[in-house]
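Re-running Dual-action HEIGH metallo-peptidase to confirm reproducibility after the cluster update. Everything else is unchanged from the original entry.
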Amino acid sequence: MKKQLLLKMGVCIVCASSLLTACTKNNQGADKKATPKTAISADVAQKIKNLGFSADNVRKMGSNYIVEGDIMLTPANLSEANTTSPVLRVAETEQYQTHNLVKNLPRTITVSVSNLPTVYATATANAVARYNALNLTLQFQVVSSGGDMVITGFDEGVDSDGFITLGYSGFPTASGDPYNAIGMNTNADAYGSNPDVGYLTSVIQHEMGHCIGMRHTDYFNRNLSCGVNGGGNEGSTYSSSDPQDYPGAVHIPGTPTKTFDAGSWMLACSSGTDRTFNANDKIALNYLY
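Result of re-run:
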């Protein structure tokens, strides 16, 4: 998840669209020290493209790679065939599922918070409550340690394009398990020195969405939520009928077919506000789970 901020005369102004959601924050200004990009090899870039993601603005984090602003790809992911990564896409004028999601339903996914301030634990409990209130066959439970998803912290400042990553996660495994890790940025430029619990809740809620197979609502044009430098299309569009295509796009019945839904909790960039499920998000989640 990112957010975009414009810095002018030392004042931090949210300049992403009033739409909200998901992954980054953009800080543009000389008074913030930017984190330089790490160049990736042509081989890695091609593997990322083969998985259906854009190879633009890829950042290296340890031995892993962050794509689309907040999606973690491991070296093992890069070696997978493009049929093994399940992703749900809520995008364009409709909401879509891909060919694989979390399996073995009904199911309870356990979530823990490790080595983060209390406000992150509170936000995690709030995010879990929001999902459970939908009465899905997929439920969540907070545990003291371990579990199916572990939320930890990382410290990373503004990048050279003026964006800051608020959090990251990944997509379910080929066997149907949710992605097992969420990273939340503890850098002061991300949430300030006294993070707002509602704002943290919405980011964790978004990253949990990725873990169960959601793709960014505006994946096809990140500029809708990230501003003019948002990065455009995150990845190629694939056939809705061929199960060998990654990530696939199967329309979810009951979701809009004539208008773009700009209010989803899975937009690529955040305006710095608390955002939860809208009506179409609930329809999609209830259909899938």
